[in-house]
């Protein structure tokens, strides 16, 4: 089976804060999500869709994780699900750099763990001519990981208000679980 790995998957922006905690997994329920993610893993013969590593050879864990790819319209406050892909833990944690940063602050992961993930992601992007999300670039700088030759994506010029945000999946809109930034801050403090 010939694989077409896509390093640019690591260029995905972080999910906007108003949508944190909302995802297809919580919408579908555990049984349907488990069926979906297993099909996603098999679709690449159990290789990471971004870096190409087989799950048995992946950094940190010998498994894959399902990641949702969204088209994000910042001005209108819509994140539309377009695809679910299999990623190794390192690639998935790189994309979710905001969560990785929170986990490091809470001492759930070591600074060496963060550095390895950021180094892995930058190497994949560098080899694939990708771009880096600004929040991910900040974390690279914080843990002294070289991100040279990887352009930083500009921040959106216009951002919808907190209450306008919704996730769109199969044509159905789902609102976030946090009604305000204050609620979000309490949950992630």
The total of beta strands comes to 4
Cα separation of the termini: 45 Å
How would you write the strand order of the largest sheet? 1-2-3-4
- Share in β-strands: 15-25%
Count, helices: 7
Q: Explain this structure to me?
A:
With about 190 residues, the protein is α+β, with helices and mostly antiparallel strands. The chain folds into 2 domains: about 70 residues, no CATH class; about 60 residues, no CATH class. The protein contains 7 helices and 4 strands; from the N terminus they run H-H-E-E-H-H-H-H-E-E-H. Strands 1-2-3-4 form a 4-stranded mixed β-sheet. Strand 1 and strand 2 form a beta hairpin. Helix 3 packs across helix 5.
Detail the topology: elements first, then pairings.
Blueprint: H1 24-28, H2 30-42, E1 64-73, E2 78-88, H3 89-95, H4 97-105, H5 111-127, H6 134-142, E3 166-169, E4 172-175, H7 181-188
Jot down its keywords.
alpha+beta, four-stranded mixed beta sheet, 7 helices, 15% strand
Task: Summarize this structure briefly.
The protein has 189 residues and is of the alpha+beta class. Helices cover 36% and strands 15% of the residues.
